[in-house]
Design goal:
alpha/beta; Glutaredoxin; 5-stranded mixed beta sheet; two-stranded antiparallel sheet
């Protein structure tokens, strides 16, 4: 529980259609925010698969959950790639992106660290693997660990939904 945290207050990033988004766009929903990249081999697909399972576990309340995937790889994660990636997990999941400067500002605001790591003729990205949960009023409430299960996430999300 990180209620009252002085970070993760907001963002200004674009969705795949090019529309600028902020937390206010998701009022009345619990929002899960995860930073990652589409070519991530393990952590990112696990995080999004877990988020899809959480939505299912919530039943009808799943409609009041918004999952946001923030790309830390603006070079490779084009809007089209991001849209296809998140849609593969759930059509309501939304990818967000920004240029290098906007990404750096957003990552700093959310205390997320990411770093490009060369791998032969390509690269991977080391990044923070936590999921942030915002309540229906847009306030940062929880920092969820990558080691937690979908059942644990769903219980936390349900509490935030019913506290509204």
């Amino acid at each position: 529980d990180i209620t009252g945290a002085d970070f993760g207050r907001d963002f200004r990033l674009k969705d795949p259609s090019g529309q600028e988004r902020t937390l206010a766009d998701f009022k009345d929903k619990v929002v899960l925010v995860f930073f990652g990249f589409t070519q991530c081999p393990d952590v990112c697909p696990t995080a999004l698969a877990r988020a899809a399972e959480v939505k299912t576990l919530l039943g009808p309340d799943g409609d009041r959950l918004q999952v946001l995937f923030v790309s830390v790889d603006p070079e490779r994660d084009t809007p089209e790639v991001l849209n296809a990636y998140t849609a593969a997990f759930d059509p309501t999941f939304l990818a967000l992106y920004g240029d290098q400067e906007r990404l750096a500002e957003t990552a700093k605001e959310f205390k997320v660290i990411y770093q490009k790591v060369p791998t032969g003729d390509s690269y991977t990205i080391d990044h923070t693997s936590v999921t942030y949960a915002f309540d229906t009023k847009g306030k940062l409430r929880l920092k969820l660990s990558h080691s937690q299960s979908a059942i644990e996430y769903a219980a936390d999300v349900r509490k935030l939904l019913h506290a509204a």
